[in-house]
Amino acid sequence: MAVALMDVYRRLFEAYGPRHWWPGETPFEVTVGAILVQNTNWANVAKTIDQLREDGLLSPRKLYALPEEELQERIRSCGYFRLKAKRLRNLLRVCVEEFDGSLEAMFDQSIESLRETLLSINGIGPETADSIILYAAEKPTFVVDTYTLRVLARHGWIEPEADYHTLKAFFEDQLEPDVGLYNEFHALFVEVGKNHCGKRPRCEGCPLAEMLPDGGPYEALR
């Protein structure tokens, strides 16, 4: 079933307005946040980043210089703190040792090269890599997640078994490569997903309800 993605975008934007995502004062804060937010809520991450900023630690070199045990304690409230400390240090190691501690130099690659660099880092998968590229490096790569798949699959616009690459290509093949559009569209999918398209659909009041098939939402895998 074909869908006009810009029609979807307009409906979501009219319902929710600009989402101002991703929160963060600098590209490095956004990058750190993209790792810490895995499997937790943003409120916990925001408090951690605020404290790191207050303590003057929000730079690649300063954060990398922390002993791993201290880093773990500083990010404890984000959950899975030991695992996330390792993942964060893996990224910091690449930034410091391969790009002289300059996130700007790291980001001064083509989208393809930057994505390859990020995906080579243990603990960074496609969604986190694309989040860093889009929101921190401000390069046009579309970010998709479970909410995106649920919304599309329940409307019959994509197969529920679609993998990350297929889902990402669904957007990039139809939309102009625009950072602002990609940023807002992904954030709007997160918003409609949280409000209406969880594990069980709650279609009443959803701005996309009128676009559902006649028999109601298709079943999504997850």
What brief labels describe this structure?
222 residues, 57% helix, 12 helices, 2 domains, Endonuclease III, domain 1, mainly alpha, Endonuclease Iii, domain 2
Task: Please give a structural write-up.
There is one protein chain. This protein is mainly alpha-helical and 222 residues long. The protein has 2 domains: 5-19 and 143-211, Orthogonal Bundle (Endonuclease Iii, domain 2); 27-136, Endonuclease III, domain 1. Helices cover 57% and strands 0% of the residues. It has 12 helices and no strands. It has helices at residues 5-16, 27-36, 42-54, 60-65, 68-74, 81-98, 103-107, 111-119, 126-136, 146-154, 164-172, 179-196. Helix 8 (111-119) packs across helix 9 (126-136) and helix 10 (146-154) packs across helix 12 (179-196). The mean pLDDT is 95.
User: In percent terms, what proportion of residues is strand?
Assistant: under 5%
The class by helix and strand makeup works out as mainly alpha
* Tally of helical runs: 12
User: What would you call the shape?
Assistant: globular
Rg for CA atoms: 18 Å
Uncertain residue segments: none
Order of helices and strands: HHHHHHHHHHHH
In the CATH hierarchy, what is the class of the largest domain?
Answer: Mainly Alpha
Kindly report how far apart the N and C termini lie. Answer: 20 Å
* Main sheet overview: none
How many domains in all? 2
**For the residues shown, what is the average pLDDT?**
95
| Second CATH tier, the architecture of the largest domain | Orthogonal Bundle
The fold-level CATH name of the largest domain is Endonuclease III, domain 1
Q: Fraction of residues in helices? A: 55-70%
Tell me the name of the CATH homologous superfamily of the largest domain: Hypothetical protein, domain 2
Number of strands: 0
